[in-house]
Amino acid sequence: MPTMMEKLKDWVFELIVFGLKQARSCIFAGSFFFLLFVSKYLPLGELARYDFLFIAAVLLQVILYLAKIETWDEVKTIFLFHLIGFALETFKTHPAVGSWSYPEPGFFTIGTVPLFAGFMYAAVGSYLAQSWRIMKTELQEFPPYSWTLALCAAIYINFFTNYFIPDLRLILIPAVFLLFARTTVYFTVIREKRHMPLALAFCLIAFFIWIAENISTFYGAWQYPDQVHIWNVVSTNKITSWFLLVIISFIIVAYLKHYKSAHVARA
Hints:
Elements: H1 4-25, H2 27-38, H3 49-66, H4 72-92, E1 109-110, E2 113-114, H5 118-134, E3 138-140, H6 145-161, H7 169-179, E4 184-188, E5 193-197, H8 198-218, H9 237-266
Antiparallel strand pairs: 1-2, 3-4, 4-5
Helix pairs in contact: 1-5, 2-3, 2-5, 4-5, 5-9, 6-7, 6-9, 8-9
């Protein structure tokens, strides 16, 4: 029987492997935020910083695909998240709404949104898709997709309508915990399967995205109204926004993964 010290050693080793696999899953997101950081200090000459970020993000995506770090299915999933995020950005940055803004100029811009912005949402989708594959994710007692897709649509629509009607997140968040109350996510770090409640995983991912958001705004990727003159920590209320956005991302990835598995099984 293993001693307490041997168990502790195995636990620490597994934790290190878990961290490395999570870092591997974040390869696109981590690389993108590294570009965000270095772009603040690079001598770009006539090239606008936002344009550099867009070009670099596209090239990064190509490199990851050619190096077989990302699959073609993952690239398509990331592009879908890019479109979803860009539509939301277009609305949120409209002068009549003014939730946040992009203060720097750029050529690769549509309306009020630089094209690199969609890659920040794509980074979330990339992490979920990569982590699903690398950690051999399995779901137990996942609710019917018709219910989850309805929830996904309600969450996305609320991001737009909460400026015209009362914000429904006080209803949507309890609905999430109720719908996924029995859902467990299983993942494999080395050999043994580990598990946690899926709703807890949503909370943890949203918290770390909020940390990344603070880093991004600190380096001027975008600005909230209270950050125009001096940088301030992003409101913790944004964690609930990311929590809901993560659910949209996860449901889409889960649906696409299960659809792919079913298609392969039929073939």
